Amino acid sequence: MSENLLTLTIDGHEVKASADSSIIQAYARSGSAITANVGCMGQGVCGSCRCMIRKEGEREVTTALACETKGKI
């Protein structure tokens, strides 16, 4: 893992992750339980890991696939 860690807030929980980790990888590595049948785990074909993303200090909310979106968005 890279020394440059980001802090992500996922479902109200702070998660530390390297910038090259996908959101779902960061969540899994934090020890949090992944919902059964989340999907493809990186192929981006099922869409079941769609999440809402808002950068700190910004008002705009976008959606993305957690399996494809890296921590540094």
Major sheet details: 2 strands, antiparallel
What's the tally of helices?
1
The structure class reads mainly beta
Using the CA coordinates, give the radius of gyration. 12 Å
Order the strands across the largest sheet as they lie in space.
1-2
Tell me, rounded to a whole number, the average pLDDT.
Answer: 82
Ends: how far apart? 17 Å
Q: What features would you describe in this structure?
A:
This protein is mostly beta strands and 73 residues long. The protein is 10% helix and 27% strand. β3 and β4 form a beta hairpin. The radius of gyration is 12 Å and the shape is globular. The chain starts with a strand and ends in an 8-residue tail after the last strand. The model has no long low-confidence stretch (mean pLDDT 82).
Set down the secondary structure blueprint.
Blueprint: E1 5-10, E2 13-18, H1 23-29, E3 50-53, E4 62-65
Keywords:
73 residues, globular, 4 strands, two-stranded antiparallel sheet, mainly beta, two-stranded antiparallel ribbon, 1 helix
Brief write-up:
By secondary structure, the chain is mainly beta. The protein is built from 1 helix and 4 strands; from the N terminus they run ββαββ.
